[in-house]
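Reopening: structure tokens for the zinc ion complex, inputs below.
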Amino acid sequence: MNTYLTGRILLGRLPKGGDLLKEITRVVTENGIETGTLMVIGAVSKARFGFYDQEGREYHYKEVDRHLEIVSCSGNISLLDNQPMVHAHIVLADEDGNTVGGHLAEGTVIFAGEAYIRELKGEKLVRSYDKPTGLSLW
Ligand code: ZN
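Re-run output (same inputs, fresh job):
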């Protein structure tokens, strides 16, 4: 475990109609945040998220083309190939309170997104290929 000090905290709204993962990545990149954590609540007009098949070692993606609440979206920011990489998971609820979720993927469209991004100061988290899992981990 590394120890970090809190750097800047960004709190703001993500644009309606934008792609949730791309917009978080844009904000992080524009602000030069290389290590951090994030949370988002709000709503989406459609969603796309993945499930990692641990045997097949690949993501299976699911698309849900309906309006959903972002119950929780949390993740972290690290470096992959010297670029900030956002890794986030999302839980979404429909009008009956039924939830779906997984690894946030491009294709999730923002209806409203209130984002909290916390920069962390300390040793950089750098992702690299992890043979036991087949994932890029830090
Ligand atoms: Zn994930």
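The chain has one helix and nine strands. The chain has a mean pLDDT of 98. Marking as resolved unless the reporter disagrees.
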